[in-house]
Amino acid sequence: MDITPYLYFDGQCETAFKFYEAAFGGRIVMMLKYEDAPSDQPTSAGTEGRIMHARLLWNGRFLMGSDTPAGRACQPQGFSVAVSVDSPADAERIFAALSEGGTVQTPLIPTFFSHSFGMLQDKFGVAWMLNCEKSTGVTQDKGASKPFVISRTFDAPLARLWQAFTDPDHMRQWWGPKGVTIIASMMDLRPGGRYLYGMRTPDGGEMWGRMLYREIVPMERIVFVNSFSDAEGGLTRHPMAPSWPIQMLSTFTFAENSGKTTFTVEWVPLHPTPEEQATFDGGHASMHNGWTGTLDQLEAYLGKS
User: Fold this and answer.
1) Closest Cα partner for 249 from 287, 214, 285?
2) What pLDDT does residue 113 have?
3) Are 49 and 32 in contact (CB under 8 A)?
4) Residue 69: its pLDDT value, please?
5) What is the rounded radius of gyration, in angstroms, for the C-alpha atoms of the chain?
6) Cα(80)–Cα(72) distance, rounded to whole angstroms?
7) Residue 28: which of 64, 2, 4 has the closest Cα?
8) Strands ordered across the beta sheet of 81-84
9) SS3 helix, strand, coil % of the chain, rounded to 5?
10) What is the reported pLDDT for 253?
């Protein structure tokens, strides 16, 4: 016996399934409209263009759905579509995609029973529950080496420094490695939200990055998962270092004392492979140099603003 989720929509089925196809990396194997049915099959008025049956294949499983006849839709409630994935990286990718335009109910976090667990309602009103169980065989980070940490005290009040990290117009002025120009700066500052930014390198090339926010404590702490990205916010690898950890867990902390503010960065790779962990462990010097350049730009910007 197999149990397959079947979702109903009010004229949005085709759009929703194309959204799920991209989010999961699956494949739509059927998209049948009411108007495609044989002429002897009765259809009600207003069904033109609506989907009679859709089927998405992902990881050997199906997700199915359709549009209700016009005027018969109701908001789904009392259930969640539970999705189990094999790796935390898959959980991060799918959770971020599904939450685009939706509402995060429980941010994706490690729990006592899973590597990653989170709940959300997508922009079509469908509730999802994502889980990467610890029993999936993913290696835990107990043997991981020490995180990368760097701090700097700025001659600026806490409120001013906090604004530099939480306002996209301010971030545009200083964020990124030395020498790059920020060409896009889009921020949704909330747990489950993201910051998507584009960078132009001195040679004219483009790179993109993203932050997926997990925790925001005003004037104190920002916790997020950062990675390289494409212009649409999709997860990508480091364009020049393929063994670099694909995702990093970042913690920014802020502490004010006598009108000055100490900012601290802590970086750890998120569920790295052995190769990624080794690259991270061997890259502390380059990370120090990179962050020093970024903090130099922040210091210069604070001096001007």
Assistant:
1) 214
2) 75
3) no
4) 83
5) 23
6) 21
7) 64
8) 81-84, 127-133, 114-121, 103-109
9) 25, 40, 35
10) 95
